[in-house]
Amino acid sequence: MKTTKINIYSLNRKIKIKKEVVKKIVGLVFRGEKYHFKEVNIIIADDSLLKTLNRKFFKKNRPTNVISFNLEDVAEVYLSSDRAENREQLLFFLVHGLLHICGYDHKNRSEEKFMEKKCLKYLTELC
User: Fold this and answer.
1) Distance (Å, rounded) from C-alpha 106 to C-alpha 115?
2) Where does Zn(2+) bind (predicted)?
3) Domain of 68, in residue numbers
4) 57-87 per-position pLDDT tens digit
5) How many domains does the chain have?
6) Among residues 10, 21, 4, which one has the least CA distance to residue 95?
7) In CATH, what number is assigned to the domain containing residue 94?
8) N or C: which end of the chain has fewer CB within 10 A?
């Protein structure tokens, strides 16, 4: 299997997650979805940064839980630790963001439920 370089940047230390856990989740999701990136950047930030990104790239002037960018060989997942109530919810946001870069979306309630089930499946596998 190809190796993915995983970089983790904590710009907001409100909720801490171990690098090993992040790497394990990235591996689980990419293996499960048969996806590969040369490099993945996970950025744990605050509402302010996610609001700025949401406004700039999606024309929505509000913060959000997660924003993902699939840049072909490189992927970036921005997580708002301000929006997460605890570590588990931040990990849920991470899986959700990874699924977005693998091509999933939730434009309707059915797609949203499907993504939610996938997130829970991967988090259950982690335990």
Assistant:
1) 7
2) 96, 100, 106
3) 5-126
4) 999 999 999 999 999 899 999 999 999 999 9
5) 1
6) 21
7) 3.40.390.30
8) C
| Placement of tokens 């590969």 in the chain | 36
Identity at 82, one-letter amino acid code: D
Residues in the chain, overall count: 127
* Tokens 């829970």 found at: 120
pTM for this prediction? 0.94
Q: Residues comprising the binding site?
A: 96, 100, 106
**Which residue positions form the known binding site for Zn(2+)?**
96, 100, 106
Nearest to 44 by CA among 88, 86, 71, 81: 81
pLDDT tens digits, 86-106:
999 999 999 999 999 999 999
